[in-house]
Specification:
Layout (H helix, E strand, L loop, with lengths): L1 H34 L1 E5 L14 E5 L1 H4 L9 E5 L26 H9 L6 E8 L4 E5 L2 E4 L2 E2 L19 E3 L4 E5 L9 H4 L2 E2 L3 E10 L9
Antiparallel strand pairs: 1-2, 2-11, 3-4, 3-11, 4-9, 5-6, 5-8, 6-7, 9-10
């Protein structure tokens, strides 16, 4: 009987150790994914031709974790706003900010932010920085009165006033972003500027397809 008890105790101990190892591995994986690096696949057309559907990227979340400043031209990902196509009565050029809602309860927040169930992200390019005046006019973008040179866009591509935000100052703590595929991109022109705390990552590099491996400009 004593031998059987020892076997049972050892078995239980081994099971507990395996469970602890699995839990630690899951926690470490979540920490790396949410605070350092994570892979993703492009599923939108808004960044064509810079990024196309099926491209696989490594996202740098460490820059967000350490609160590194953003630069114009960087490609970022951010949480989708709650309202992406506001009514005209909801558009305010004096307060051009996107609307977000928060999940209620600790468990709902963990599922949404931790496991990212039901969470959707957009990938766009930083155009306007905090305190800058943005004007979209005659197919061009002007920052503080000067035309923005966008070498990353195909020749002849114009920026139209798609949505209600086209003449405003980016509030402090926010950025203004657009997709490179200006005619087919739901972006800050529609829903307003993005708060910094809703930005999730910067695009570090593309690893698939192999013939495009490297930094994304």
């Amino acid at each position: 009987m004593e031998e059987q008890e020892k076997v049972k105790v050892n078995y239980v101990k081994e099971v507990v150790e395996w469970i602890l190892c699995i839990l630690i591995a899951v926690v470490l994986a979540l920490l790396v994914r949410h605070y350092i690096f994570t892979p993703t696949e492009v599923r939108q057309v808004s960044m064509k031709p810079t990024l196309i559907e099926g491209d696989r990227l490594i996202l740098n979340k460490l820059a967000i974790t350490t609160h590194k400043d953003f630069e114009r031209g960087e490609i970022i990902t951010f949480e989708r706003p709650a309202i992406v196509d506001p009514r005209s009565s909801q558009i305010d050029q004096e307060n051009p900010v996107a609307v977000y809602t928060e999940p209620e309860g600790l468990f709902a927040k963990f599922v949404y932010y931790g496991l990212e169930f039901g969470k959707e992200s957009y990938i766009k390019r930083v155009i306007g920085l905090p305190g800058e005046h943005v004007l979209i006019e005659d197919g061009k973008v002007y920052i503080n009165g000067e035309e923005l040179v966008e070498d990353y866009l195909p020749e002849g591509r114009k920026t139209e006033r798609k949505g209600g935000y086209y003449d405003f100052t980016v509030p402090e703590g926010y950025i203004f972003a657009m997709g490179d595929n200006r005619g087919d991109s739901t972006d800050c022109r529609s829903f307003g500027c993005i708060p910094m705390n809703k930005i999730e990552s910067k695009v570090l590099f593309r690893f698939w397809p192999f013939n495009k491996f490297g930094k994304v400009n």
